[in-house]
């Protein structure tokens, strides 16, 4: 069964729909991720957080989660998280550091920025 709301990994397009599901700390995190100031590391860290919480790596086209779609799955996972908003923020901050470290290692080989490797092949 095909659901147009199903992606391979957590899609950023779902982030705005998660804002009202928890307390003010969570809402502030969502605002931070959606802001124009949020960079590659912040957006990637949020995606990674949601992938880990939702178990996106074990989702497949025949699974119940995939049939419901990413939006419904993410909303359910955020609502059912048993920890506090602060725990989610701590996990997010740790993932931002992890992603920043990964980016710095990957792009220390002569590229000035990650965006250079993503599109411009004309050097």
Q: Could you explain how this protein is built, in words?
A:
The protein has 123 residues and is mostly helical. The chain has one domain. Helix content is 56%, strand content 0%. The protein has six helices and no strands. Helix 1 runs parallel beside helix 5 and helix 2 packs across helix 5. The longest helix has 22 residues. It is globular. The termini are far apart. 20% of the residues are buried.
Structure keywords:
single chain, 123 residues, mainly alpha, 56% helix, disordered C terminus
| CA distance, first residue to last residue | 43 Å
Q: Give helix % range.
A: 55-70%
Q: What form results from the Cα inertia axes?
A: globular
Which radius of gyration do the C-alpha atoms yield? 16 Å
Order of helices and strands: HHHHHH
Calculate the mean pLDDT score and round it: 87
Beta-strand content estimate: under 5%
Structural class: mainly alpha
What does the main sheet amount to?
A: none
């Amino acid at each position: 069964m095909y659901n147009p709301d199903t992606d391979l990994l957590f899609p950023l397009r779902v982030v705005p729909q998660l804002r009202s599901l928890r307390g003010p700390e969570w809402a502030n995190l969502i605002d931070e991720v959606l802001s124009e100031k949020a960079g590659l590391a912040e957006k990637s860290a949020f995606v990674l957080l949601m992938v880990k919480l939702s178990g996106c790596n074990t989702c497949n086209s025949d699974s119940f989660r995939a049939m419901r779609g990413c939006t419904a799955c993410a909303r359910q996972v955020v609502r059912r998280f048993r920890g506090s908003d602060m725990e989610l923020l701590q996990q997010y901050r740790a993932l931002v550091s992890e992603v920043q470290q990964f980016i710095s290692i990957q792009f220390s080989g002569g590229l000035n920025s990650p965006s250079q490797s993503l599109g411009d092949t004309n050097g």
